[in-house]
Amino acid sequence: MRSLLTLVAAFIGLASLAAAFTLPSGNRSADGMGSASLRRSHSHVAKHTQRRARQSVTMADAKAYVDGLVSEHRVMVFAKPECPYCQSAINLMAMNGAKKVKSFKIVYLDNEDPATDTIQDYLQEITGARTVPRIFADGKCIGGSSDVEEMKSAGTLRPLFASMAE
């Protein structure tokens, strides 16, 4: 039962709530299913789903947000705080002069924010990849973590940021 509920929760985009379906072994009802715990968990999922639906973001909103940031900043990074690839790319960029660029910005996307999915969908539309980090320099997507590593190896990363520093 637990694995089915976990799969359902993951399928509807609530993988972070899958743990809420875990029923302690001592909390079983007469039917053996732990009905009271399951009802509480279902209620929590329903409230979370309703909150996400209320705060949904349109693709037009995501486009305006992303395009505005990309055009406003010479170096723009869309990342997630818990993503090791994001941190690696940001550190590599910093060591190669990105922080000397006057208009350098990092936006951390939150997995709990319903706008994140729409923003990542739009990033996929314009860059071909939905993953983070998505890094832009002078309005052009230069890729993600592996792309920045390749630029470093090729000797083009530091000169790129040096040309942008004011």
Automatic annotation (TrEMBL):
Compositionally biased residues, Basic residues: 39-53
Protein name: Glutaredoxin domain-containing protein
Listed CDD domains: GRX_GRXh_1_2_like
Gene Ontology annotations for the cellular component aspect, listed alphabetically: mitochondrion
Signal peptide limits: 1-20
Organism expressing this protein natively: Vitrella brassicaformis (strain CCMP3155)
Residue ranges annotated for the Glutaredoxin domain, each copy included: 75-142
Top-level taxon of origin: Eukaryota
PANTHER family, alphabetized: GLUTAREDOXIN-2, MITOCHONDRIAL (PTHR46679:SF1), PTHR46679
A GO MF label: protein-disulfide reductase activity
Record's keyword terms, sorted: Disulfide bond, Electron transport, Redox-active center, Signal, Transport
Segments of this protein annotated with the region Disordered: 32-53
Family per record: Belongs to the glutaredoxin family.
